[in-house]
From TrEMBL, chains A, B:
GO molecular function: DNA binding
Feature: compositional bias, Basic residues: 361-370
Pfam families xref list: LacI, Peripla_BP_3
Protein name listed in UniProt: DNA-binding LacI/PurR family transcriptional regulator
Source organism superkingdom: Bacteria
Compositionally biased intervals (Polar residues): 345-355
DNA sequence: CTGAAAGCGCTTACAG
DNA sequence: CTGAAAGCGCTTACAG
């Protein structure tokens, strides 16, 4: 029986004493079992098993001055994709780090204050912020701080959440269909770099192509905001296409259009973002942008790890080996669904040849064995909400 | 300028030396500023400010044998409500604890192993599992482990995620409308206590009322599973009502029905769960169950804190002061939406008198100033997907 | 009110 | 290959 009645976990000294060696030897055993003479190793092994010994990680951290912990800072209450966080956690674990997720109330200032505190408490070796912060990792006495989705000093996109380039593709595509007046219902600009970036690209692209924007409604990722944005449009509005902050917003936009007696996509084309499964099964199904959350989470942690190790930042554009984005190409266009019964069945759609285009404008297909070198979110024109 | 060029944070000894006192005094200052003579306090204060000193929390933990950290264990990749985690974090912070969120791949066994490891590493003082685990907090050498959503030894519901009672209400309601044959597309039974509980209540209720169940499709929270479950039904099936694991699944069910040429709710009534905003704006909007995620997160942490402190568990049924659930009553029925254009506008629905009933079967209304004493998830029959 | 001493449980040079 | 010693940065009795 390896049971112990003491509430207190065994210490290294107790193991040493049971094994009849010094605690130094036990410590050495923990670091590298092969550095011990076989006979000694067996004794220590036995003692460790018997006492069910686990080293006290706090004490170890104290001595090594390494906590092996990272923090991920999020805005309070944000409905963050579990996959992203899970992938981030896993990547960190594989590198020997634990991840602590800290949710902070308030805006960028509050987050920054918390990060500052965290950075100097000696508890974590690096911090990853998925929401905008005001402080940069420029101060002294600090551990590395990486803001995912932000732009770096040279204003180059750092990929990950920042990649808003699909917005360009979407608008170009819709313009090609004849759309001239657009509306953007953004996500939460204050707390999400991704929302900021998309808004910026939206405005730039509309401008560049000589199109008209009926405005940008600064949203909060809510469907209600999308709904209200549409119902607030004046009768006789020129708007025929909406770029929504995400699928939830898009669903509100669609419902708003239907409530006005408009058809989607007949009278209004609507684009979402995130390729949420629920949007794919909505009626009409949403045209959207597929983003590889797992790759994002992985890439963000890898960038932080590189900073910690003092290595150069991993290529934001991704390498073939470790792409920051893995395109999803399992969408295919369906016939527009304007009434019941629907003529398209989502379950059969994935069986058809995919027809997504990437932000780079390259056609992709599952059947091409080797993926192209560029990775990024994949615009899926396969939904019923955008028209063809 | 309070800037320091050293990369290394200041230690308590450096503060002491600058202030001209012993480090003991500095430590005392950190614990209780008033225990110092005013003159001394000023000196220490100055030194702390000057060096921008923050105590090393790892060292403190080592000495006090308190880490002030809790861990929340989740199944890998689960799309967990941000609000729940945020509320849990906040509640913990208010009690002086940091929260670490650990995402574990694999099923209950893998989670349990990770929890075991965590429990004895000395890194956390308590563990909260939102997903089922196999080990119980019965072993020695352990910190308290609370499994949220599980049933306690006496098989009493521990509220929180476990509260599946609305399933009973839903079925009774649908039976009252004349439905006789039901189908349940469950959530992920293996990794979610909530899915287990709902399935159990579903089977019990159908049995008790002498109704028929066409079966339970063990799902994975995916819309695809919901879609497939419906398209797999034989022609001429008796099923007229579906209880879905959540709103995503429900959306798949609805789409599957539409794909078969059925109308919802005309031919099939569908109930979701979670009251996700996107489902409210879907067409048809979903009948669903509103759950207060923030209250759940709060309650779960409070239960863990009580265990840590050796206090009796907080009342699972909730107190007036700190209810585990706060009913949401902002839903109101809309006319069934069977074609376009829709006759109901979601945005106006919240303005009308709510007509939700609680799991206890009591009518609620915003206009009753004082809420009833019982708290729990609120069944919202206000969606378009269930019929009236 | 303040300081000298002990010690939390480890790891890591340094000797042997 | 193994052990004695020092020390990571704090807190907490114990004296004064």
């Amino acid at each position: 029986m390896a049971e112990s009645t003491s509430r207190r976990p065994a210490t290294i000294h107790e193991v040493a004493s049971l094994a009849g060696v010094s605690h130094t030897t036990v410590s050495r055993y923990l670091q590298d079992k092969d550095s011990l003479k076989p006979k000694t190793r067996v004794k220590v092994e036995f003692a460790v098993k018997t006492l069910d010994y686990r080293p006290n990680l706090v004490a170890r951290s104290m001595r090594t001055r390494h906590t092996n912990r990272l923090a991920i800072v999020l805005a309070y209450g944000m409905h963050f994709p579990g996959r992203l966080l899970a992938a981030a956690s896993r990547t960190a674990h594989e590198a020997g780090y634990q991840v602590e997720i800290v949710s902070v109330e308030g805006g960028p200032a509050a987050r920054s204050a918390r990060i500052d505190e965290l950075a100097r408490s000696g508890q974590v070796e690096g911090i990853l912020a998925f929401s905008p912060i005001t402080l940069k990792g420029k101060k002294t006495n600090r551990v590395p701080i990486v803001e995912s989705g932000a732009y770096d000093d040279k204003l180059h996109s750092l990929a990950e959440l920042a990649d808003a380039t699909p917005v360009r593709e979407i608008i170009e595509y819709l313009a090609g269909l004849g759309h001239r007046t657009f509306l953007h219902v953004s996500g939460d600009i204050e707390n999400f770099a991704s929302a900021r970036n998309r808004k910026r690209v939206y405005l730039e692209t509309v401008e560049r192509l000589g199109l008209r924007s009926a405005g940008v409604v600064d949203g909060d990722w809510s469907a209600q905001r999308g709904f209200d944005a549409i119902t607030a449009l004046p009768d006789g509005t020129d708007v025929t296409a909406v770029v929504a902050g995400n699928d939830v917003v898009a669903m509100g936009v669609v419902r708003g259009a239907l409530a006005r007696g408009w058809s989607v996509p007949g009278d209004l084309s609507v684009f979402g973002w995130d390729d949420e499964e629920i949007g794919r099964f909505a009626t009409p199904s949403l045209s959207t942008v597929a983003v590889d959350r797992e790759a994002q989470g992985r890439a963000a942690i890898q960038r932080l790890l590189a900073e910690i190790r003092g290595e150069p930042a991993p290529d934001a554009a991704g390498t073939e080996d470790q792409p920051p984005h893995i395109p999803r190409v399992d969408r295919t266009p369906t016939e527009p669904l304007t009434g019941l019964p629907p003529s398209a069945r989502p379950s059969t759609r994935t069986a058809t040849a995919p027809s997504c285009i990437t932000p780079r404008g390259r056609a992709r297909s599952r059947r091409t064995a080797k993926p192209a070198h560029s990775y990024g979110p994949v615009v899926c024109f396969g939904g019923d909400s955008c028209g063809v």
